[in-house]
Specification:
By secondary structure, the chain is α/β, with parallel strands linked by helices. It is built from 12 helices and 10 strands. It has helices at residues 22-28, 49-62, 77-88, 107-114, 131-140, 155-175, 190-201, 223-237, 265-278, 287-299, 319-322, 324-327, and strands at 18-20, 32-37, 67-72, 92-97, 118-121, 145-147, 181-186, 207-212, 251-252, 308-313. It has a 6-stranded mixed beta sheet with strand order 1-2-10-7-8-9, sandwiched between helices. Strands 5-4-3-6 form a 4-stranded parallel beta sheet, sandwiched between helices. Helix 7 (190-201) links the parallel strand 7 and strand 8 (207-212). Helix 2 (49-62) crosses helix 3, helix 2 (49-62) crosses helix 6 and helix 6 packs across helix 8. It starts with 17 loop residues before the first strand and ends with a helix. The chain binds pyridoxal-5'-phosphate. Residues 47-49, 77-78, 151, 153, 185-192, 283, 286-287, 314-316 line the site of pyridoxal-5'-phosphate. Pyridoxal-5'-phosphate binds at residues 47-49, 77-78, 151, 153, 185-192, 283, 286-287, 314-316.
């Protein structure tokens, strides 16, 4: 299809594993639970941004750019994977991170530094305000900068998750399982929109359930509006325009707790449960919150025991070490 002609670089090892969580399934006594292991993409401790960055960096390199700029929170998994990907191709990487420099960098921030990225702290400025200035400054130095959006979430980044549905379709055939639902952490909307477009494109019937992570307003307003917008632009980019009704986009709002990156009992419980029953690490900010949401939905009887639920592990593992004191 059209996609074949789109520039892409290889940043990870695909397909990522997909397997059943037998002990967790038994423990919860509800539907069959499987996990898609995007924590094992292979790029710098893994994560869902690897798929998006394959297309974003492909586009940047195709345009002749040699410097990458992106932004996020100080513990951004997206920034860490972008820094690693840039290093793989010898591109200079500038990260614009929220707040001010901590005295003792750890977790993702420590890794950003190891990958040689140049870090700009926003201080008092709002998230993103400094990016255009940095872009102009780098240009005036004769560099060719390329801006990767927050979370890699635009139509180009979302392509990574369109492809992921094809990958899943092949794996589910091999395992001989029909998934009824896919549950995952949804924050800047690119993962969710890419999965929606993938289900259209590859004719894959499954219910997508995003678990909301972040209360913060997105450019389009609500997260549902952001996902709808991205679904339209991503499908156009692929050569077929498909709109989606806002009512068909599910992002569960009830698991936000005290807000982004604030660890509560629900996240602590899900992290411990996965570690103790499956030997699998999930993170406090994203995959742990999404897992807590899925566990709650199972306990409330939202699924039948015949359902096959796929939990898409989107990564985030390095932040465990930043949040150590919340997890002890
Ligand atoms: C970025 C991220 C998400 C959310 O993906 P979006 O495409 O931004 O919605 C989920 N989990 C982890 C670990 C992430 O880093």
């Amino acid at each position: 299809m059209h996609q074949k002609q789109l520039p892409k670089v290889n940043l990870g090892f695909f397909p990522t594993p997909l397997h059943k969580l037998k002990r967790l399934t038994e423990k919860l006594g509800g539907p069959h639970i499987y996990m898609k292991r995007d924590d094992l993409t292979g790029l710098a401790i893994g994560g869902n941004k690897t798929r998006k960055l394959e297309f974003l960096l492909g586009h940047a390199i195709d345009q002749g750019c040699n410097t990458i700029i992106t932004g996020g929170a100080s513990q951004s998994n997206h920034c860490r994977q972008t820094a690693a990907a840039a290093a793989m191709f010898g591109l200079e990487c500038h990260l614009v991170l929220g707040g001010s420099e901590p005295s003792d960098p750890d977790g993702n921030l420590l890794l950003d530094k190891l990958f040689g990225s140049k870090i700009h702290w926003t201080g008092e400025f709002r998230k993103g305000e400094k990016i255009p200035d940095i872009f102009m400054e780098l240009k005036s130095e004769g560099k060719k900068p390329y801006i990767v959006p927050y979370g890699g979430s635009n139509d180009i980044g979302a392509l990574g998750f369109v492809n992921a549905i094809l990958e899943l379709k092949v794996q589910s055939r091999e395992l001989d399982v029909d998934f009824s639902h896919i549950v995952f952490a949804s924050s800047s909307g690119g993962t969710h929109a890419g999965l929606i477009v993938g289900t259209y494109m590859f004719d894959y019937a499954v219910q997508l359930i995003g678990i909301g992570i972040d209360k913060e307003e997105l450019p389009a307003g609500s997260i549902e509006k952001q996902i709808a917008l991205l679904t339209g632009t991503t499908s156009s980019y692929m050569g077929f325009k498909r709109e989606i009704d806002l009512d068909h986009i599910i992002v569960r709002p009830e698991y936000l707790g005290e807000g982004y990156g604030i660890i509560g009992d629900a996240e602590r419980e899900s992290i411990k449960l996965l570690a103790e029953t499956e030997g699998i690490l999930i993170d406090p900010v994203y995959s742990g919150r999404a897992m807590a949401g899925m566990i709650d939905m199972i306990r409330k009887g939202e699924f039948t025991n015949n359902d096959n639920i796929l939990f898409w592990h989107t990564g985030g593992t390095p932040s465990i070490f930043h949040y150590a004191s919340d997890l002890k």
